[in-house]
Write a structure and sequence with these properties.
The chain has about 300 residues and is of the alpha/beta class. It has helices at about 25-40, 40-45, 50-55, 55-75, 90-100, 105-120, 140-150, 170-185, 205-215, 240-250, 255-265, 280-285, 300-305; strands at about 5, 85-90, 130-135, 155-160, 165-170, 190, 225, 270, 290-295. About 45% of the residues lie in helices and about 15% in strands. It has a five-stranded parallel beta sheet, with helices on both faces. Helix 9 packs antiparallel against helix 10 (about 240-250). The N and C termini lie close together (about 5 Å).
Amino acid sequence: MAFAFLFPGQGSQSLGMMDGFADLPVVRQTFDEASAVLGEDLWAMLGAETADAINATVNTQPLMLTAGVAVWRAWESLGGEKPVAVAGHSLGEYTALVAAGALAFADALRLVRLRAEAMQDAVPAGTGAMAAILGLDDAAIIEACREAAGNEVVEAVNFNSPGQVVIAGSKDAVARAMEACKARGAKRALPLPVSVPSHCALMKPAADRLAAALADVTVNVPVIKVTHNTDVASHSDPDAIRAALVSQLYSPVRWTETITALVAEGITGMAECGPGKVLAGLVKRIDGSVKCVALTDKAAVETALAELA
């Protein structure tokens, strides 16, 4: 079977999310490696009494990267074959690049920590917002955002699946766009509990900081095809990969197109490599003919080894 691995981003984190891998030494070793790079105990955060620490953007991004790499290494340690292609949702693209050999794990950790800090610094707390729009077609959402923007920013930023799009921008403009979407027939418009309006034009200052950091990071030619969020394309040139990561910060996540493109290339099976089942659910909504398993624990990995053989 030609299969692809998908790596989740922010929003899939939870306390104890790696408990199902506790008896695989490579998982804890991966967290120890990441903790040494960043100078703090990431594994301890997962066992805290509250989720405050893991939900802070500066922690969430390196945690999700580490979790995805740990599950990838668990797959390899249990004899899993390399997928034909990989992709990651937003932050998950960094995990995909680590799995593909394009980025060193330590470099990726430092990059996503800086990425998180730059994103948080780009927009003062309380002035940005995001919202999920359900049950309205993409074109209507884009038009609603255009109508609602005025002199502010609001854009469609996550095309997650048909009928599920996230908008982001200035707080007041997002509120106006939510009403404009409902006026056009959206079933629901839900504000999201986030502190950063990701993937919109407000993130351009963060992108400038990321570009400066990426210039000093070694980027290798991927050994596995990586499909990028920003252009739904794969790149072998290191500078093109850097450019894709920079533009990703202020450009939409084209997830529906990403999954559709992978299927068009002959992918018949997929695995969500990391905590949660968000991407597996989106794949089902995008193309119900494609089986996507979620590698949420060791048992799920062992089942996938047989199903994706």
